From TrEMBL:
PANTHER family: ABC TRANSPORTER, ATP-BINDING PROTEIN. Belongs to the ABC transporter superfamily. GO terms for molecular function: ATP binding. The keyword Endoplasmic reticulum does not apply. It comes from the Bacteria. Keywords: ATP-binding, Nucleotide-binding, Transport. Gene3D superfamilies: P-loop containing nucleotide triphosphate hydrolases (3.40.50.300). Residues 4-236 form the ABC transporter domain. InterPro entries: AAA+_ATPase, ABC_transporter-like_ATP-bd, ABC_transporter-like_CS, P-loop_NTPase. The keyword Transport applies. This is ATP-binding cassette domain-containing protein.
Length: 290
């Protein structure tokens, strides 16, 4: 049994098909979801977090049906941590007070154990010293970490994180990577991000979504390999058929896709290069019939 099994999951909003017959399974380990704005990442994560229901298809979480009995849903939610993309904060609560509030909802009924757990997750996200500060007085990145702390309560078996690294400074991002890779050893961590370097540094598996469908599902190494021989460095401005190019800090141009410009030297592709090429190929495919 996988922690998460999605079969032919479809979700539409009016005329927008946010997810179109998606088949995905997740078990232990960290999976990164990449995709452009509107790709369907949040929709997918909300379905896994039991915050919304799919219109069609089958969703199994820890072998249970989230839309079966109320007891089944409660069993799933006990084992689930969720960081939404946007979270309204009760500004007048302290960081400790807010995370404790969620802990109460999650049935941490013993006061002593609850307080120890709240302190533990606040320490995990580096907020031990700011626990008594009001949420409204925290910086944006600190507030984001309060939200992350509540998702970590009770070591959930399924951890759903929608853009967890947004707004974090580099030190905090590195700390978060360490925390999540440790968690990935014992639970299914599913995170979305626009930072390909987070995925490259942290995720064993990467899923690329675009237009509500899965465009790639595999290891980071396999995704990077799709860009082999298609990335160059050159001194002069490249021609117009490159998919993208930019002048780097060294003054050379990094060229992705197209034909190699004169004097270009092949260079090792990054995950970002491969991701851009994958979506660029999609854009061409969409444009072709017009
Ligand atoms: N509550 C909603 N009502 C109507 N349309 C929605 C709603 N939520 C999402 N959509 C639409 O569904 C599609 C997928 O949205 P979703 O939020 O899942 O994308 P995303 O990949 O998370 O994007 P982003 O990177 O911007 O967060 C988009 O076209 C969006 O406009
Ligand atoms: Mg989103």
């Amino acid at each position: 049994m996988n922690a998460v099994d999605l079969t032919a999951v479809t979700k539409t909003y009016g005329r927008t098909r946010a997810l179109d017959a998606v088949d995905l399974s997740f078990d232990r380990g960290v999976t990164g979801l990449l995709g452009p704005n509107g790709a369907g990442k949040t929709t997918l994560l909300r379905i896994v977090a039991t915050s919304i229901a799919a219109d069609r298809g089958d969703v199994r979480l820890l072998g249970r049906d989230p839309h079966g009995s109320h007891a089944e849903l409660t069993e799933i939610r006990r084992e689930l941590g969720y960081l939404p993309q946007e979270l309204g904060y009760p500004g007048d609560m302290t960081a400790f007070g807010f995370v404790e509030y969620v802990a109460v909802l999650k049935e941490w009924n013993d006061r002593g154990r609850r307080h120890r757990e709240v302190r533990r997750v606040l320490e995990l996200v580096g907020l031990g010293d700011l626990a008594t500060k009001r949420v409204s007085k925290l910086s944006g990145g600190q507030r984001r970490r309060v939200a992350l702390a509540q998702a970590l309560l009770g070591d959930p078996r399924i951890l759903v994180l929608d853009e967890p690294t947004t707004g974090l400074d580099p030190t905090q991002r590195a700390d978060l990577r360490r925390t999540l890779s440790a968690l990935g050893g014992r639970c299914a961590v599913l995170l979305s991000t626009h930072q390909t370097e987070d995925v490259a540094a942290l995720c064993e598996r990467v899923v690329v979504l675009a237009g509500g469908t899965v465009r790639f599902d595999g290891t980071v190494t396999d995704l990077v390999a799709t860009a082999a021989g298609r990335v160059w460095l050159c001194d002069d401005e490249p021609g117009t058929d490159a998919l993208v190019s930019w002048r780097t800090g060294t003054g050379r141009h990094h060229v992705v896709g197209g034909t190699p410009p004169p004097g270009a030297v092949p260079t090792d592709p990054t995950l970002e290069d491969a991701y851009l090429l994958m979506l660029g190929a999609d854009a061409h495919a969409v444009r072709a019939p017009a």
